[in-house]
Amino acid sequence: MENATDVYRKQNSFHATNCSGSLEETRPRLEKVLREDPQAYFSDGQNNLLKTACKEALGLTAPEKGFTPFQLHPFNLDEIDRLPDAELPRYLLYRYRYDVYPARRILDDYPPCVQIEPSSICNYRCVFCYQVDEAFTDKSSGMMGSMSLEMFKSLIDRLEGRCEAVTLASRGEPLICPDIEAMLDYAGGKFLALKINTNAWFLDEAKCHAILRADVGSLVFSADAVSEPAYSQLRVNGNLERVYKNIRRFREIRARHYPKSRVITRVSGVRYPKADSLQAMKTFWAEMVDQVALVEYNPWENIYERPANDISEACSDLWRRLFIWWDGTANPCDSDYKSTLKMAQSEAPDVREIWRSEAYEALRRDHLVGARKNRTPCNSCQTV
């Protein structure tokens, strides 16, 4: 029998504070969407899905037996507060697909989220990250590099209007990519849930402006401690003073030049031994960012060395997201940072074709029938 402590439930790994959103305050807006005529730019199926999302979020209907109803969490409500009414239906559809489809094993033509890797290179060597694996970071491995602007534009063109959640991050530090400012300019305004994860080391003035011009929805700064030497012991090669100054610069530029920006800034750390508590993080960072969060630690930094486990439950990420590395490699997860499960590699990745490919479907089938033990590194991974 599986031990619950050995299972990493990705959807429940996020603990945020400083969120101010309230369902009661948002209720009238949801009720308005429910009352309105079908959205002209949605298909009949999308309009029906939108009504279902509103009803479940408002507690007006129950999902199928055995499933948890769709919920809007405080951090979702904060995002909704910054959206005009005209964009709320798009947001609800995106969030329903992101939260509900993986839990209910539903697929359509595109993943709820696509993570694009501007660069696999990172200047940090965080103790809980796969960047500590020298077989990965060695230049001769062929795994280090940055995405071309041409490939990035091709991906954005394929995703616009089909996928709302695009995250610029994965195995490396996105702001290290030489073309990151041009990438942001090209992606700007095309997705409701454009997100960047960064260690903030390279967050200079030009990049602050590029992020704000792009109307990024979420900007997540990775940090786990509020003092030295704890910070640099976890975020090896990092420096808390520099990161703090860069985040403060971003806040000041946003306030001075982009007062109507909808971006939500968040400091997010890993709940790891030696990491500070959520309360300590909140006390230190609250004036610098909109939200503070910790995610549960998942030992992905040595997944290829860990023994096989007895977990048979399917991994929800197979229905939630697709990763596109800097070189066009499409991978189903970033725990498999060496691409053992690679689905395709192309200079012009076709997300729809990859997402519904027979190779991807075969991997999902193995997980659904309890045969993830036949897949490496799924057989040693704790994520469900």
Give me some keywords for this one.
globular; 10 strands; 384 residues
The low-confidence runs, each spanning 5 or more residues with pLDDT under 50, are 1-5
Helix content: 25-40%
Order of the strands making up the biggest sheet: 1-7-6-5-4-3-2-8-9-10
Estimated radius of gyration: 20 Å
Structural class: alpha/beta
Per DSSP, what share of the residues sits in E-state strands of 2 or more residues? 5-15%
Q: Biggest β-sheet: count, sense, barrel?
A: 10 strands, mixed
Indicate the mean pLDDT: 93
Report the order of strands and helices.
EHHHHEHHEHEHEHHEHEEEEHH
Terminal residue distance? 15 Å
Number of strands: 10
Shape: globular
What is the helix tally? 13
Description:
The chain is an alpha/beta fold. Helix content is 34%, strand content 12%. It has helices spanning 23-35, 44-57, 74-81, 88-104, 134-137, 149-159, 180-187, 205-213, 230-234, 240-257, 278-285, 351-355, 358-368; strands spanning 14-17, 113-116, 165-168, 193-198, 218-222, 264-271, 291-296, 321-324, 329-331, 344-345. The chain has a ten-stranded mixed sheet. Helix 1 (23-35) packs antiparallel against helix 2 (44-57) and helix 8 packs across helix 10. The relative contact order is 0.14.
What is the compact description of this entry?
The protein has helices at residues 23-35, 44-57, 74-81, 88-104, 134-137, 149-159, 180-187, 205-213, 230-234, 240-257, 278-285, 351-355, 358-368; strands spanning 14-17, 113-116, 165-168, 193-198, 218-222, 264-271, 291-296, 321-324, 329-331, 344-345. The chain is an alpha/beta fold.
